[in-house]
Design brief:
Elements lengths: L2 E4 L5 H8 L3 E4 L8 H8 L4 E4 L7 H7 L5 E4 L9 H6 L3 E3 L6 H16 L2 H9 L20 E5 L3 H12 L3 E5 L6 H7 L1 E3 L2 H7 L2 E4 L13 H6 L5 E4 L8 H10 L4 E4 L10 H5 L3 E3 L8 H19 L10
Parallel strand pairs: 1-2, 1-3, 3-4, 4-5, 6-7, 6-9, 7-8, 9-10, 10-11, 11-12
The protein binds glyoxylic acid (GLV).
The site of glyoxylic acid has 7 residues, from loops.
Length: 319
C-alpha cells in the first residue's frame, strides 16, 4: 500500500478509487492547505494529487522525498507544476486534458454573450433597483452573427469554442503553434492566421493557449491597440496571458469595446479598475466548474496515480 496525499477537497468518487488501493491523506478543510502544512504532509508520499492553487516545485518534491513517483494535477493547465523539476527527480507529472473541454468552452461562450450583450450590466442595473423600461436604444449590445471570432490557441477548448461560434453564425480565424486536423479546420471553416492578423480582423478574441514563459502578457497594450475598437477580449485560459493593467486601461479609454474574464493575473485578486468598469464581465475561474466535469477531472487524476503506482504509464502524462 502506498501513501497518496490529496492537497484539497475533491469529489468522493476519486477518493474512493484511491482508497481501494492505497492509504489516502486528503486535505478536506474548507480553507486551502497552507504551504507549511502542505510541505509537512507530503513528506513520505508516493503520490500527490494537486489542485491548481498549489505550487508543485523543487522544494515540495524534495520535501516529499525520493520515493515520490507521481504528481497528478487536477487541471488541464499545469503552470503550477514545475515539470522539469519533476522529470529531474523521476517523478511522473500528469494533467486532465479532454474532460473539461466542453465545460470550459461553455464558459468562454457564456462570457462572449455576457460581454457582447451587456448581460452583467443589465443584471446589476436591476439589482440596484434602477428605474427602467423597454427602450429602442436601451442597453444595446453587439450581434455575433456574421462577425469573426479569433481563437488564440486552437487546442481542444479553442476548437470547442469555435464550434459554438459557428453555431452562432460567426466566422472563425485561429492562431496556433501547430497545424490542427484539416478535417476539423474544414468543419469549422476556420482559417489559420498569425496573431497580428487575428487581432486586426476579429470582433471577439478568445484566449485558449497554455500559460508559460512564452505566453506571459501575450496580450498587452500593443496587442489591445491592434484590435478593433468595437472588439471584445475573452480569457478563460490563465490570467497572466493578459496584462491586466493594460486591459483595464484599454477598457476604460475605449481602445476595445469590452471583455469577459474567467481568470485573473493574480488570483484571487482582481485589478481594482475591473471591478468598477461596466464593460467587463468577470466570473471567478469557473471554466470547469460543473459537478460532472470536476468529478471526471478528479477521477482522471486518481486513475493517473493508480496507473503509475501499479508500475505502468500515466493515462494522461504531461508532455
Ligand atoms: C482550469 O483552469 C484548468 O486548467 O483545468
Amino acid at each position: 500500500m502506498s501513501r497518496v496525499v490529496v492537497t484539497g477537497a475533491v469529489p468522493e468518487a476519486a477518493l474512493d478509487k484511491l482508497r481501494a488501493e492505497h492509504e489516502v491523506d486528503a486535505w478536506s478543510e474548507p480553507v486551502s492547505i497552507g504551504r507549511e502544512e502542505l510541505l509537512r504532509r507530503v513528506a513520505g508520499a508516493d503520490a500527490v494529487v494537486s489542485l491548481l492553487t498549489e505550487r508543485i516545485d523543487g522544494e515540495l518534491l524534495d520535501a516529499a522525498g525520493p520515493q515520490l513517483k507521481v504528481v497528478a494535477n487536477v487541471a488541464v493547465g499545469y503552470d503550477n507544476v514545475d515539470v522539469p523539476a519533476c522529470a529531474a527527480r523521476g517523478v511522473v507529472a500528469s494533467n486532465t486534458p479532454g474532460v473539461l473541454t466542453e465545460a470550459t468552452a461553455d464558459i468562454a461562450f457564456g462570457l462572449i454573450l455576457m460581454a457582447t450583450r451587456r448581460l452583467g450590466e443589465g443584471e446589476r442595473l436591476l439589482r440596484a433597483g434602477t428605474p427602467w423600461k423597454w427602450g429602442m436604444f436601451f442597453l444595446l449590445g453587439s450581434s455575433l452573427q456574421g462577425k469573426t471570432l479569433g481563437v488564440v490557441g486552437m487546442g481542444g477548448i479553442g476548437q470547442a469554442t469555435a464550434r459554438r461560434a459557428k453555431a452562432f453564425g460567426m466566422d472563425v480565424v485561429y492562431q496556433s503553434r501547430g497545424e490542427i486536423d484539416p478535417a476539423i479546420a474544414q468543419e469549422l471553416g476556420a482559417r489559420r492566421v498569425d496573431l497580428d492578423e487575428l487581432l486586426k480582423v476579429s470582433d471577439v478574441v478568445s484566449i485558449h493557449c497554455p500559460y508559460g514563459p512564452g505566453t506571459h502578457h501575450l496580450i498587452g497594450a500593443g496587442q489591445l491597440a491592434a484590435m478593433k475598437s468595437t472588439a471584445f477580449l475573452v480569457n478563460t485560459a490563465r490570467g497572466p496571458i493578459v496584462d491586466e493593467a493594460a486591459l483595464a486601461e484599454a477598457l476604460s479609454t475605449g481602445v476595445i469595446a469590452g471583455a469577459g474574464l474567467d481568470v485573473f493575473e493574480k488570483e484571487p485578486q482582481i485589478h481594482p479598475a475591473l471591478l468598477t468598469l461596466e464593460n467587463v464581465a468577470i466570473v471567478p475561474h469557473l471554466g470547469s466548474a460543473t459537478v460532472e466535469t470536476r468529478t471526471a477531472m478528479a477521477v482522471l487524476a486518481a486513475e493517473n496515480v493508480l496507473a503509475v503506482l501499479r508500475g505502468g504509464d500515466a493515462v494522461t502524462p504531461i508532455g
